[in-house]
What does this fold into?
Amino acid sequence: MHEKKKRYFILPLLILFTLSCTCGAPGLKDFIPENGEATSESIEATMTPRTKDPQIQGSSSSSQATPVVTGTGELEFLNTNRFTSNDWEYVVGEVKNNSGKTLSYVDVSMILYDANNQIISTVSISPLLSPLYPDDTSPFVTSSDSWGEFDHYEFVVNDWYEPEDADPMDLEIVYHTSFSDDYSLTILGEIANNSDQNAQWVYVAGSLSDESGQIMNATTAYTMVDNIAPGEKAPFKMYFSDNWKDSTDYFLQVRGSPGEAPVPEVRLVNYKATREGNNCTFTGTVENLTSEEIGFASITVSTYDANDKLVDANWTFSDGSTIKAKGKDTFTLSVYGCKAYDHEVVVVD
It folds into this structure.
C-alpha cells in the first residue's frame, strides 16, 4: 500500500514531486442549474474536446491592468478576475501554453501595484494543472488577507521545466454533476483509468464561469482513492465556498501520475449499511495484512443507482490511529442527507 496522502493537504504541487507526472484528457464542461440544485440524475456529462475548449480572451475589469511579461509570449494569461471574500483578496484566471512544448514546474510571479504604480507585493503562483501540454489552458488562483490595497497587477514568467517523458495518461472523467446549498457548490464526479498502468495522485482542476464567460473561481480535488488500477474508477468531490453564486457553468480537467501498483496492506473484512430517515451509516472492519504495525486505513463508499450511475461518494479513516500487525480495526462513516441509491461499493486503501 502506498503511503497515504493527508486528505487536508490538497495542493497541486504534490503532483510536481513526480518528474514523470504525465496525464491529460479532454476537459468536461457543464452547466450549473439555475436553481442551484442538481441530483445525480439531472445532469448528463458532456464531453468537450480539447480543441474546443473555451479560450476567452482577457476580460478583466477596468481597474485591473494585467500586462504579461514573458519575453517570447510562450505563456498567455487570459480572463483574469479579482474578488474579495471574508476580507481575503483573490485573483483568478487562466494561463495558456503557446510554447509548443510540454511544461512543468511553471514559476510565475504576480506583482501587485498601488495606484501610483509602486510595487506593494510580489506573489508566486503556479497553474493548477501540471504538466501543461501544448495549447493547454489551465486555471490558477491565489489569495491573501495581507496584500493591502492594490490597484493593478502584472505577471512575470520566471522559469519552467521541460520533462523528457510526459505522455498523457488515459484518464477520463466519466461522470460529473453539481449541487449546492446556501453556503457552497459541490461538484461530484468519477474518474476512469483507461490506461494499462496504475494511476496515482489523480486530481481534477475545476473552474467556474458566469454567463458571459468570465472566470469566477478555481480549485482542485483529488480522487478519494489513492491508486486507480487499469480499468477501475474512483470518485472525487470538489467544493466552492467563495464567489460561486453567479456562476452558470464549470470546466473540469484531470491529471495523474503512472506508478507501480502497491502491494495490498489492508483488506475489508465486512461492512454493514443502515439507513434511518435521510441519514446513512456504514460500519465495518478492516484487517492489517502485514507483519508490522501500520497507520490508519482509508475507506471510501460510493453509492450508485440501478444503472450504475454515481449518486454520491464519501470517505473516512479507520477508528484507530494505527492497526497492529495482523490486527483489525473498525470504521464508521455517517452520511447526513443521504441520497437514495440502489447499491454501494466500498474500497479500502
Observations:
- The chain is about 0% helix and 50% strand.
- The radius of gyration is 21 Å.
